[in-house]
Design a protein that fits this description.
- The chain is α+β, with helices and mostly antiparallel strands and about 375 residues long.
- The chain contains 14 helices and twelve strands.
- The strands form two sheets. Strands 1, 2, 4, 5, 6, 7, 8, 9, 11 and 12 form a ten-stranded mixed sheet that branches.
- Strand 1 and strand 2 form a beta hairpin.
- The protein starts with a helix and ends with a helix.
């Protein structure tokens, strides 16, 4: 067959023509193969991109959040806890935060109400997130009705809608003045939802947290690193949940692919017998089958990965966003920034391409070692 490179080229040409002769079977296999790779790659891309977004968002979170527990549940914390915590060496600032959730039965949505520590709205005014404005159909100058804990309706003027770029974190957000917040929730004076603590030296965070816990046994300090680990575990759990749901489909595909790859048809056995009878060596036959397996599995892998990339980063994983994003009514509209984990993509390549390629060689080797006349007669 001439030079090694020329030999490989001719074998690849023959392998592609051989696949084309069994077009229907190979196209069916390629479609199922691509679908499985597409789903797995979509999960990998989506989970990695969400972890990246969570990491960026938490970069602006407080170094530490201090909550108060009562009977194991989150309770309102006395604001004067902040004065004692601020006196701990290394603590730079302590800021009481007011925030909470308000359920709207009319739209079936939960809103996050928060009093911003910097530049809060004037009493009677609110700033609403893009999701709230969309679901309630309100804009600047409109009245926003909210249901207080006393079941009275409180009307607030919409000052402005928050920028669409903030939708990922502000879709369900309503910013309001402290007086309005306390009126809506009947929030007691001198209490806060939690305390945001800033520590000058990050290496002292654990020490400060232990001093806070010793000072107030009913307080629970939460470090930013713990929040990051929680988000990582959450997205890993949701991605794993999807994999479990798809496990049945994966097993079916493996059985299907193994059957198609391992079970040579009479036509394929006859083809191997003819090739051996005209002078092909066993190594040449194995090389041919290797290229056939690579052509099918590599094409399915590349197609599946490209489709998954478009699905996640251009269409926001719309096919399974409910399972991965959650079941909230107010879904934020955002486009994920590509974040690809080369290691996980490599594992997907190894698990999807290598097994099928190997599975095509073994039965071909068995068929190529028999007498050519017997192979053609089979």
């Amino acid at each position: 067959m001439g030079s090694p490179l020329n030999r490989q080229r001719k074998v690849i040409d023959f392998a592609l023509s051989s696949l084309a002769r069994r077009k229907a079977k190979n196209l069916a296999l390629l479609a199922v193969y691509t679908l499985i790779v597409f789903v797995c790659a979509s999960l990998i891309f989506f989970v990695q991109a969400m972890k990246r977004e969570a990491s960026l968002l938490l970069a602006g979170a407080p170094d530490m959040v201090v909550q108060r527990l009562l009977a194991g549940r989150h309770d309102l914390i006395p604001a004067d806890y902040g004065q004692a915590i601020a006196a701990i060496p290394g603590v730079q600032a302590v800021t009481p935060r007011l925030w909470g959730y308000l359920y709207d039965p009319a739209y079936g949505a939960n809103y996050t109400l928060m009093v911003p520590t910097d530049d809060p709205p004037a009493p009677g005014l609110v700033r609403v997130g893009p999701g709230v404005a969309r679901i309630m159909g309100v804009g600047p100058g409109d009245l926003l009705p909210l249901r207080a804990m006393t079941r009275d309706s409180v009307l607030l003027d919409v000052e402005k809608t928050l920028a669409p770029e903030t939708e990922l974190v502000a879709a369900d957000l309503i910013l309001l003045a402290e007086d309005d917040f306390r009126k809506l929730f009947q929030f007691p004076a001198g209490r806060a939802t939690d305390l945001a603590v800033t520590v000058a030296n990050p290496n002292e965070l654990v020490t400060v947290a232990s001093k806070v816990a010793a000072l107030y046994p009913d307080a629970r300090p939460i470090l930013r690193s713990e929040m990051e680990r929680t988000y990582d575990a959450l997205f890993d759990w949701r991605g794993g949940m999807m994999v479990v749901v798809l496990a049945a489909a994966l097993v079916s595909f493996i059985i299907f692919a193994w059957d198609k790859a391992a079970g040579l048809s009479a036509e394929e056995r006859r083809e191997i017998g003819i090739l051996k009878s005209i002078g092909w060596e066993t190594g040449d036959v194995l090389l041919l089958k290797l290229w056939e397996g690579i052509a099918v599995s590599l094409t399915a892998f590349l197609l599946g990965v490209l489709l998954a990339y478009g699905h996640v980063f251009f269409f926001s994983a719309s096919l399974f966003e409910h399972a991965l994003k959650g079941w909230a009514v107010l879904y934020p509209r955002f486009r994920l920034v590509p974040e690809i984990d080369a290691y996980q993509l490599g594992v997907l390549f190894f698990l999807s391409v290598i097994p099928y390629t190997v599975a095509t060689i073994i039965p071909s080797w068995l068929a190529a070692t028999v007498d050519p006349d017997a192979a053609m007669r089979s």
